[in-house]
Amino acid sequence: MEEPRPDPPSLVSGDEFRPARGKLWGMLIVFALMIPVGAVAAFCWWLQIPVFRGIVLAAKAGIVGLLGIPLGMFLAVVAGILLASAKTLVIGDDRVQFISRGQVVIEIPFRNVAAIYAKGEGDAGVVGLKLRDRRDPATRVPSWTKDSYEIQVLTYGKSVEFMRAAIDKRFQAYRTQVGGQ
C-alpha cells in the first residue's frame, strides 16, 4: 500500500532573493566562448598562422589556448548547473524556502536549524544551515543532504556576508520569539 503524499507546503512571505539570471547567463556565455577562442589560439600557434598584423602566437599563447578548452568546458557546465538549479530564496519569519515554478521545493524550518555558518568571501562562497534532524518531517531537503544544507551565494549575486546576515537576522528573531532554544 502506498503512503499518502504530504500536502505541498504553503508559500511564506519574507525577504525574497531572486537568482541573478543575467549574471549566470553572462558567465555561461563567457565560459562557452573560452572553448572556441582557445581552440583557435591553439590551432594558430600549432600551424604558425599569423594572426594580428602578421604576429605569430608564442608557445605560451598556444598552451593557454589548449588549457582554455577543457577549463571553458568545465566552467560552462558549472555555470549551466547553477543556472538550471537557480531557485528563489525566501527567508520567512520561521523558515527558509526555495521556490521553483511557484512551488516550494526546499523548506527548512528555523526550529530545525542548530546553527548558521558561512564559508568563502565576497560573491564566492556558501551560507550553510546546520540541521538538528535531517529526517524532520517538516524539513524538505534533497535526499543527498547530510547534516547541513548549503546555499550558493553566487546564484543570488550577493556577498556571503550579506546573505549570512539576512538569514541570521530572521533566525535570531525567531529564536527570541520562541524563547531562545
Quick summary of this structure?
This protein has helices spanning 21-46, 59-84, 160-178, and strands spanning 14-17, 88-92, 95-100, 103-109, 113-121, 124-131, 148-152. With 181 residues, the protein is of the alpha+beta class.
Percent of residues in beta strands? Answer: 15-25%
CATH-level-2 architecture of the largest domain:
Roll
Helix-strand string: EHHEEEEEEH
- Order of strands, main sheet, comes to 1-2-3-4
CATH-assigned fold name of the largest domain: PH-domain like
Low-confidence segments, ≥5 residues, pLDDT <50?
A: none
* Portion of residues within helices: 25-40%
Biggest pleated sheet: 4 strands, antiparallel
* Mean pLDDT across residues: 89
Shape: elongated
CATH superfamily of the largest domain: FACT complex subunit Spt16p/Cdc68p
Q: What gyration radius follows from the Cα positions, in whole Å?
A: 22 Å
How far is it from the N-terminal to the C-terminal residue, by CA? 39 Å
Number of domains: 2
Structural class designation: alpha+beta
Tally of strands:
7
* The CATH class of the largest domain: Mainly Beta
Number of helices: 3
